[in-house]
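Entry 14. Ran structure prediction on the chain below.
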Amino acid sequence: MNTHPTPQLHLLGTTLLLLSPIALLLSGCPYPGTGGATDLDYAAGFAVGFAEDAKYWEGYDDSMATVDAGPIYYQGSSIPAPQEPPYDQGYWDGVWYAYNDGYFVAYDYAFIIGFSEGYDVTFNVDGYTFLSLDTHLEYLDGGFSDGYNDGFSEGRIFGAADYEQGLPFDWLDALAYYREGNDLYFEELDLGTGAYGPVELYIYGTDPAATAKSSGSRLRNTPKSDEPPALSYRSLPETQQNALKQTPGTSPRSDRTLTLDTTWLARVNAYNALFSTNSKSAQPRQRTLR
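Output, structure tokens:
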């Protein structure tokens, strides 16, 4: 039996968020045009540069290495940005995109992990009390801790809400619902997700060493078409997989024992499988007021 007041929960619809928290901010980025020798040269260079897996995983590792309030390892601003010839411009734009994709994807994977553990911590009779005492940690750098804490803070709202509504434990379903653009809000606490919470999601393409992420994206060069390149979630190499093969007993945000018995890697894989282009669209359960 609950020992605290049942919170009044509001369900709030927001803009669709695609596969990642801020993927919608990709618009306006450079990409090969649709005609002419210059566009073809640019496109050829971009394709080669974007295929640079080493630069992608350098970005990923830099994001993973950026933890808590420590040094920021983002190196995207050091990548050349020539304006000509077109092939070179395209090549280095492609390299920059590869690096930034890797950096952002690491943040996004940390967000998934944090969301699952925030959900776990509050999915119990004391979840509402935890929300009233917990403080969101914001690092503004797009690194692992930043993603983890952003995800944890959003997940904790869903965990408490699902428990209060008598729904079964399912952090993945809650994350799918959130990524469809749905927010939750506890009126009594004036606390919720999205625009109704304290979280500032990392903006793709932002140099965290140069500007606060809330001030906007630092886009590269001039768009060459209306269609930006798709954010790439590349298969994790063995080294990066091994780093996620852990199942902590507690979260850095709580001393409560976690019930999750799957590794971080398994949770990331489960999320990717849910949104795979080869699978049916996820249809998470709807959340309604009690």
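The beta strands are 9-13, 182-186, 191-192. Will compare against last week's run tomorrow.
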